[in-house]
Design a protein that fits this description.
By secondary structure, the protein is mainly alpha-helical. The chain contains 20 helices and no strands. Bound molecules: phenylalanine (PHE) and sodium ion.
């Protein structure tokens, strides 16, 4: 069967950048950088980008382009069953991510409309948790549908699955060609407005002020690696799937550099925008930038609404643009992660794209809607923590060690990439993949396990927002090993004859 391909090189780059640029760039990067040394964070960040992010991106682009299949099919064609399970494992982790990622996009979508009249009122935190998410209902009342989340969530899934139904070129490529330039323009407007606010410099000073002691701290390096993995959407089966739709004659190495640098530029811009606005808020209300900067999800849904309340001039419009940019950035990432399992199921069972979207995308949408119930969001938080901390490091570590050390494919992939790309891969690429990345990721896994297991005995409440360590650890391990088990199970079955 003829494989779908991207229509143009720019179309592929837009799609890859669309996957990379997501909620992580806008609300995650600014506070991660701030908490991990500010201006000095750029040293570990750049190091992680150049020794792990881009090298792995090149590796995944080469695998997808060379073997022309979804992640499990590409791995199968590369090294048979002993590699296929990795693709399915990544796919099932992706499935879990898509389920909750969609929910956060739905919040952002709902907040675009709240922006016009600042429906969140003065107490933006109380509004988010009590009125909007309805987290504080008593246990007996949990389970009721929260329509304010249900409806936007349904819209998010209808848009995403509709785009995937339309196919690679007419669906994903077209959508990214519209969404990504729109996103860039909106974002530039936001950032320009932000840096011209009173007090913007105060925020930027706080953001860029280097704390050089921080870079001696190993946890800062771990944070940089963790963020790079999540931010570039690597180790999730995504980039293998997307590059499998490249035409035969395509430069993979250059495309990886473009994708990596575009994603980082967007993060940097987001950091500038967010901190300029925080500086404005600090000048208005006399709070310290430090007090509002590390709010996580709260940064977007608690702090920003409060700032929009005080914003000079067209505040409704500013709020609308901010949440619209979150929505667009999120949608292009959600379609990429959903495509991983749509492609995998299409090929394994030889079913049509239409059926794969209906069954697998439909299932994700249904599960996701369980989060739109009262109290349902308790779980979201835990899954998010785990996917970000363990999931990414574990998948990345296994993938790199398998490809480089067990299956010994470095040379093969290097030759493949070099045959079609302008930039030649050499020692830097091999050393980064084979030595630096496994050491840092291995250290990272070990450290996280230790933290979660042993601190149990030192503190009552645990290290993550009051959940006990054992609880977070078991639920995380349960999700990861559940996905792994399913992955192994799926790899046992035969490929449909069209894809063998
Ligand atoms: N790269 C996306 C971001 O920065 C996150 C993401 C990771 C999306 C994995 C899909 C899959 O937000
Ligand atoms: Na990103």
């Amino acid at each position: 069967m003829e494989r779908s391909t991207w229509g143009t090189r720019a179309g592929f780059i837009m799609a890859a950048v669309g996957s990379a640029v997501g909620l992580g760039n806008i609300w995650r990067f600014p506070y991660v950088a701030y908490e991990n040394g500010g201006g000095a964070f750029f040293i570990p960040y750049l190091f992680a980008l150049l020794t792990a992010g881009i090298p792995i991106l090149i590796m995944e682009f080469s695998i997808g382009h060379r073997f022309r299949g979804s992640a499990p099919l590409s791995f199968f064609r590369m090294s048979g069953k002993k590699a296929e399970w990795m693709g399915w494992w990544a796919i099932f982790v992706s499935f879990v991510i898509s389920v909750y990622y969609a929910v956060i996009i739905a919040w952002a979508m709902r907040y675009t409309l709240f922006s016009f009249n600042q429906a969140w009122g003065e107490d933006t935190e109380g509004f988010l948790f009590n009125d909007f998410l309805q987290l504080t209902v008593s246990p007996g009342e949990t389970g009721g549908i929260v329509w304010g989340i249900f409806i936007p969530l349904a819209i998010v899934w209808i848009i995403t699955l509709g785009i995937l139904l339309a196919g690679v070129k007419k669906g994903i490529e077209m959508a990214n060609r519209v969404f990504i330039p729109t996103l860039v323009i909106i974002f530039l407007i936001i950032v320009i407005r932000a840096v011209t606010l009173d007090g913007a410099m105060l925020g930027l000073d706080a953001f860029f002020k280097p704390n050089f002691e921080a870079i001696m701290d190993p946890t800062v390096w771990v944070a940089a690696y963790g963020h790079i993995f999540f931010s570039l959407s690597i180790a999730f089966a995504i980039m293998i799937t997307y590059s499998s739709y490249l035409p035969k004659k395509s430069d993979v190495t250059n495309n990886a550099f473009i994708t990596g640098f575009a994603n980082s530029s967007f993060e940097l811009l987001a950091g500038i925008g967010v901190f300029a606005v925080l500086g404005f808020m600090a000048t208005q209300s006399g709070v310290e930038v430090a007090d509002v900067a590390s709010a996580g999800v709260g940064l977007a849904f608690v702090v920003f609404p409060a700032i929009i309340n005080e914003f000079p001039g067209l505040n409704g419009l500013f709020g609308f643009l901010f949440f619209l940019s979150l929505t667009l950035a999120g949608l292009t990432s959600l379609m990429s992660i959903t495509e991983t399992y749509v492609a995998g199921f299409t090929e394994k069972f030889g079913i049509s794209r239409r059926k794969a979207v209906a069954f697998s995308g439909g299932l994700a949408a249904l599960i996701s809607i369980l989060f739109a119930t009262q109290g349902g969001l308790f779980f979201l938080d835990i899954i998010d923590y785990f996917i970000n901390q363990f999931g990414v490091a574990a998948l990345g570590l296994v993938e790199v060690i398998m490809v480089v050390w067990v299956l010994r494919k470095t040379k093969h992939l290097q030759d493949h990439a070099n045959a079609i790309s302008d930039i030649r891969l050499g020692g830097w690429w091999k050393f980064s993949l084979g030595v630096i990345t496994p050491i840092v990721l291995g250290y990272m896994m070990f450290g996280l396990l230790r933290l979660n297991i042993f601190q149990q005995f030192e503190t009552e409440t645990g290290n993550y927002e009051g959940y006990s360590n054992m609880f977070t650890l078991t639920s995380g391990v349960a999700v990861a090993s559940g996905a792994l088990l399913l992955g192994i199970l799926f790899s046992l079955g035969k490929w449909h004859k069209n894809y063998r």
